[in-house]
Amino acid sequence: MTGQRPIIIIKKKGGHGGHHGGAWKVAYADFVTAMMALFIVLWLLNSSKQIQDAVGGYFKDPTGTSRKVGSDMVGQGENFVLSKDNMDALKEQLQKAIREVPNFDKLKNHIDMTVTNEGLRIELLESAKGTFFDIGSPELNSDGRDLVIVLAKELGKLPNKLAIEGHTDSKPYSSNKIYSNWELSADRANSARRLMQANGVRVDQITQVRGFADQRLRKIDAPMDPINRRVSLIVQYLVKPPGDDDAPRAGAEGAAGAGGAKPSDEKAGDKTGATAAAPAPAAADTAPTTPTAE
Prior knowledge:
The protein is of the alpha+beta class. It has helices at residues 23-45, 49-60, 87-98, 104-107, 142-155, 181-197, and strands at residues 111-115, 119-125, 162-167, 206-211, 230-236.
């Protein structure tokens, strides 16, 4: 019949609840996990040995109690044992801590940290006008106190023993022969010891306080250079496990010694030193007169 509209038949298929299944989600999650693992491996391959050991130690022992590795050193206290393999980790941690010291921008060029055969050597270097000690004074000034207190709080968390050294340049302390560079170097080291033990360092943690006068010059070719005046803190490697009662302990004061100490590379870790004498009245580091032999 002309003009009749065509018949349209609509067929509906049965659905399945409005969802298309979740198998793709599982596959996508596996893909993301694999990518994350890949990026972690690539990062570790380009990381230092200390980071690799720490990450590996965490997965082997998340609590960090069996091998004492696997977490950052902050808050570990006795669990962080320094060795030649991880001494750089302490150096980085200390550098991070001292950035919070007031006047850090003024002091940063006078702080030197070096890993040596003896341990981590932290040197507080003086300037011509004085940086951590006022000229001629055996006591730390405000900047010196701020820095030493920060170092003491960090180093007090460690089981490692500490040694403290005092050094001067070759200019005579003064015309007074009773108090010389020997006494000044030992008194400055002892001043740092007292402040550190009052701010976190254990009484038995410091084993030596050594005064070398000008016998361990930092600049041998320039004995009068102010940079030779410094206090050095040495974080020593552990000889025996922490808590070993048989570990030898030395007195807090340096052994007596006078001239004749042979200048040598500070990495050698010579144990000789000067007797810490009673503090004398403050005087100039250098006498205005022409230097003469002690």
